[in-house]
Write a structure and sequence with these properties.
- The structure is a single chain.
- By secondary structure, this protein is of the alpha+beta class.
- It has three domains: 96 residues; 247 residues, no CATH class; 75 residues, Alpha-Beta Plaits (2-Layer Sandwich).
- The protein is built from 13 helices and four strands.
- A four-stranded antiparallel sheet has the order 2-3-1-4.
- Helix 3 packs antiparallel against helix 7.
- The longest helix is centred in the N-terminal third of the chain and has 43 residues.
- It is elongated and about 95 Å long.
- Keywords: Cell membrane, Coiled coil, Membrane, Transmembrane, Transmembrane helix.
């Protein structure tokens, strides 16, 4: 085991002095370079009055050389300051300094970062747009459930199906008031069933992702109350789901075959609306909750798409909850279990799972692989923050020029491949580390690696 080098108080003071002197040199060099640049530009301005191509060419070359020299010199001085800072951190830790002055911190999360105004404004505008989209998704999903799924006895995808069954056990669909109360209770049960998954998501996927999903769930309750009412408030007249029927009032249809066709048609419309709502959520870096919390965690952990796991899980939940629904009281006695179980609402519910997934994937293919090319002047900081987000598979190259043909001899290109669902989060992480970073994305067909011999 390597023995720690002893650090004295005098060495600590020397390191601080070295940092001060290097910072002073850097400031002096920047001022001197700026003075030289202004002088050259002033001479170039004079040549506009009395043109001299030879002198103009020499001055422009001198200006370009000054730019290259300045970058190189400033880079070296900054690297020197960073080295001293690292020594300072080690010294402060060794000497147990009560009020450390080191600028660099091993854990950047504990450091309040200075975000450029332009970047701060970008995040503010983006967040406001995202909140608007989340509430739009909540409204669309509420319309899908209240006007299409509920009248046709179709179960919503995922653990929402469990919430639906529990709500109907408490408020069986015997009266209009019961149906409305059952629909409201469904949204409440959906949040309650999500509580363990919300805690899991908060710890593994982050606060921002989880809060957006919770906002969507609460938005559904609010829109249901606004449209359909609660207590003495009876909702929007003529538009609430008790007074208004899209296309057809299913309770008036007596022919079972025609009723089954309408159930599938209602399921199709509800599935498309649900898919649109989910697609909007995925686009703003959120999810509808339930099993999607686990799906997103697995996708991040594996750093690649998870295939059709969510469809399989949702199908298993549906089969179980539909069997439970046989015990719900109704105005018409249920037929035998076999006839009830293998009926139109069950198959329409399966259709909803598949079509909602297809529509959402069309709007935002969240598990499609995408490769990001990040050009940064702070590659170490960017790399560390990507690792903190769970992105460990990174490749890096030195950059000679950028897409706009500018020389960038001090930059590094970092390449990572991620599921598209994490693009927004990773983009914000990179920009917080380096506001001047350039990010380009490209679709990736497949992630793979050459087989390796087992050691």
């Amino acid at each position: 085991m390597e023995k720690k080098r002893k650090i004295t108080q005098q060495e600590y003071e020397n390191i601080k002095e070295n940092i001060r002197q290097t910072q002073k040199t850097l400031k002096h060099y920047i001022n001197q370079t700026e003075t030289t640049r202004k002088s050259i530009k002033k001479r170039l301005a004079k040549l506009e009055v009395n043109p001299d191509q030879k002198k103009e060419f020499k001055l422009k070359v001198a200006l370009e050389q000054l730019k290259i020299t300045e970058k190189s010199a400033i880079n070296k001085l900054v690297e020197k300051i960073v080295e001293y800072e690292q020594e300072l951190i080690a010294a402060e830790n060794y000497l147990n300094i009560e009020n450390p002055i080191a600028v660099l911190k091993p854990n950047y999360k504990n450091k309040k970062e200075k975000i450029p105004f332009s970047l701060k404004k970008y995040f503010q505008i983006t967040n406001l747009k995202n909140y608007g989209y989340i509430f739009l998704a909540a409204l669309i999903a509420t319309i899908a459930f209240d006007y299409f799924f509920s009248p046709s006895r179709i179960l919503p995808p995922g653990i929402g199906a469990l919430g639906r069954i529990f709500a109907q056990f408490i408020f069986p669909p015997l009266t209009i008031d019961n149906i409305n109360n059952s629909n409201l209770l469904y949204y409440i049960f959906f949040i309650v069933l999500n509580i363990p998954l919300i805690i899991f998501s908060w710890k593994t996927l982050g606060a921002s992702f989880t809060l957006k999903s919770l906002m969507y769930m609460i938005g559904q309750i609010l829109f249901h109350i606004i449209i359909n009412g609660i207590g003495s408030y009876h909702g929007i007249p003529y538009l609430n789901s008790n007074d208004f029927y899209f296309l057809q009032n299913l309770s008036t249809i007596k022919d079972q075959t025609i009723l089954d066709l309408w159930i599938f048609f209602f399921g199709l419309i509800g599935a498309i609306l649900t898919g649109i709502a989910y697609g909007i959520l995925y686009k703003v870096g959120s999810c509808p909750g339930g099993t999607d919390f686990i799906n997103n965690y697995i996708a991040r952990k594996k750093e690649k798409p998870i295939g059709n796991i969510s469809i399989l899980v949702n199908s298993i939940i549906l089969l179980g909850t539909w069997a439970m629904s046989y015990g719900i009281k109704s105005n018409n006695p249920n037929p035998s279990f076999g006839l009830y179980y293998f009926s139109a609402p069950l198959f329409a519910s399966f259709m909803v799972i598949f079509i909602a997934g297809l529509v959402a994937n069309k709007i935002f293919p969240r598990y499609r692989n995408t490769t990001l090319f990040i050009i940064s002047e702070k590659p170490n900081l960017v790399s560390e923050r990507l690792k903190a987000k769970g992105i460990h598979n990174q490749c890096a190259w030195k950059v000679d020029w950028t897409f706009d043909d500018n020389i960038r001899d001090d930059s590094i290109l970092i390449m990572i491949t991620i599921p598209l669902v994490f693009f927004r989060e990773i983009k914000e992480t990179v920009l917080l580390a380096d506001p001047g970073a350039i990010i380009r994305s490209q679709s990736a067909y497949k992630i793979g690696e050459m087989p390796r011999d087992k050691k």
